[in-house]
Amino acid sequence: MDFPKLKSIIEGLLFLSGEEGLSIKQIAEIVDQRVELVTDAIEEMIQEFSQQGRGVQILKIAGVVQLGTLPEHAVYFEKLAYSPARTSLSQAALETLAIVAYRQPITRVEIEEIRGVKSERAIHTLVNKDLIIEVGRAEAIGRPILYGTTKSFLDYFGLASIKDLPEPGLFEDSENLEEETQLLFNKLDLQQLEPESADPADDLNHIDNEDDNTDSSL
């Protein structure tokens, strides 16, 4: 494999891995190349992204490599996140938000075990809207991201603290998930977060209990 192709593949892998990111060892195993070569490719990509004025950068955090936006562009991302046209959330995002609120800190895999479907898209939406945030890493293989709610979440709901959420026994499993989500948002009377009509791209794939019980970051 030539070096430019290797860098192109790595960029695609980092894009797909999202906030979970990948370790250099994981990337090396996927592309079937030496760790040293992958490390060289990533270092060169970091320099190229900076020199070319790209809108994203490659970050290395706690042994994990991931794509990230530039801090100096944050003001524009905030405008996008809080645009009136983006105030609604899909049913998938509402369910995910409710689960995070009641079960935080929680990993993506744990969210998916409760919902029974893939939840990466919903999580990405909620992070972009500053309703949930990474609060740490689980002490498990792969160190999956733990998610929790933000101050913006409390402000949206008019809550002084997370302890003020109603019905603390909700969201133990997926049996009555849709009904419990509706109950929660009815109690909170949060008009600006009324569910949108279902997006066919949301949660496209249902989880296979036998094959998908592990975090994709492993």
TrEMBL record:
Protein's organism: Paenibacillus amylolyticus
Function of the protein: Participates in chromosomal partition during cell division. May act via the formation of a condensin-like complex containing Smc and ScpA that pull DNA away from mid-cell into both cell halves.
Keywords: Cell cycle, Cell division, Chromosome partition, Cytoplasm
Annotated Acidic residues bias: 209-218
Cited InterPro entries: ScpB_csome_segregation, WH-like_DNA-bd_sf, WH_DNA-bd_sf
Protein name as it appears in the record: Segregation and condensation protein B
GO CC terms of this entry: cytoplasm
Subunit field text: Homodimer. Homodimerization may be required to stabilize the binding of ScpA to the Smc head domains. Component of a cohesin-like complex composed of ScpA, ScpB and the Smc homodimer, in which ScpA and ScpB bind to the head domain of Smc. The presence of the three proteins is required for the association of the complex with DNA.
Domain of life: Bacteria
Family: Belongs to the ScpB family.
Name of a matching Pfam family: SMC_ScpB
Ranges for region Disordered: 195-218
Biological-process GO terms, alphabetical: cell division; chromosome separation; DNA replication
Subcellular localization(s) per the UniProt record: Cytoplasm
